[in-house]
Amino acid sequence: MVLVSDIYQSRSDNEAAIILRQGPVVYPGPHARGEFALSEHQLRSYRKNGFIQLRGLLQQNETEELLREARQLALTSGQRGLPEAVLEPGGDEVRSVFRVHGLSRVFERLMRDGRLLDVARQILGSEVYIHQSRVNLKPGFSGREFYWHSDFETWHIEDGMPRMRAVSCVVLLTENNEFNGPLMLVPGSHMHYISCIGQTPEDHYKQSLRKQEYGVPDPTSLGFLVQRGGLQSTKGPAGSVVFFDCNTMHGSNSNISPFPRANLFFVYNSVDNRLGNPRGGLQPRPEFIAARESAPVLQRL
Ligand code: 6CS
Ligand code: FE
């Protein structure tokens, strides 16, 4: 008899495995009635695919302000060499800025906006807090890829997130089209957890946020997921919002087009799913990547 200490073990030996998800995708709870809650039809689509895209949720003037703010943050945090500013691999362009809700009042306000918060609370069936926020700038000509991965695999192993009870909310700050490296998702992949091969290096985030090589699925497992569910990209205008489950397999190609592709991510975690110890004796990652201090339960605007 094998005693399984962790139902979502990964990176613990050189064997890949495909593990059935345990627990619901949409959690029951009293929070299903926010003004901007998803309809039953939309919830069914989210449960089935592991994501849903809401086109035009934000107005053009809002996304223009958000894009200006994102670019300003990238410039200042890059110039000041803040740890929250992550550079492109092999270059000095800013790839991502983390903890944007702490660096900017504009993003701090948006994370409390009912159009996002009502849906996060509805899906997670509880009060929520921000586990992580970031802007991925993916500039034209030089924005590099984000290889296929499940965020939960990283957040479980490296941050000690217990269960799949977190949702990423992506706000498209620029148009995502077939040329500029749109976010791609594997429909239905949230129902299978891919246990990855390889031992996590120390301070892995210093490398993984630039180019992830550990905690990525092997080709056979990825092929299994895509063969079952296909691929879908979140092509759409700025102002569209995508909610995707923490375990939905996703990635994006490099951007060699002249058009920038900037996306803003708020990761809402249930207050009943707070981080524990990282797996495999890893050191906890810095607060700007994985919030542990009593992150405030969000008051809705
Ligand atoms: O390690 C993390 O938390 C980050 N890595 C990726 C590739 N996606 C989620 C998150 O931004
Ligand atoms: Fe990710």
The hetero molecules present are: ligand 6CS, fe (iii) ion
- As a percent range, the share of helical residues equals 10-25%
Strand arrangement across the biggest beta sheet:
2-11-7-13-5-4-3
Class by SSE composition: alpha+beta
Figure out the total of helices.
Answer: 8
Shape: globular
What does this 3D model show about the protein?
- The structure is a single chain.
- The chain contains 8 helices and 13 strands.
- The protein is an alpha+beta fold and 301 residues long.
- The mean pLDDT is 95.
- 25% of the residues lie in helices and 20% in strands.
- It has helices at residues 40-49, 60-79, 100-103, 105-110, 114-124, 151-159, 205-208, 219-229, and strands at residues 17-20, 51-54, 85-87, 94-98, 128-136, 146-149, 166-172, 183-185, 192-195, 232-233, 241-245, 250-252, 263-270.
- The strands form 3 sheets. Strands 2-11-7-13-5-4-3 form a 7-stranded antiparallel sheet. The protein has a 4-stranded antiparallel sheet with strand order 6-12-8-10, with helices on one face.
- Strand 3 (85-87) and strand 4 form a beta hairpin.
- Residues 132, 134, 146, 149, 151, 154, 205, 208-209, 212, 289 line the site of ligand 6CS.
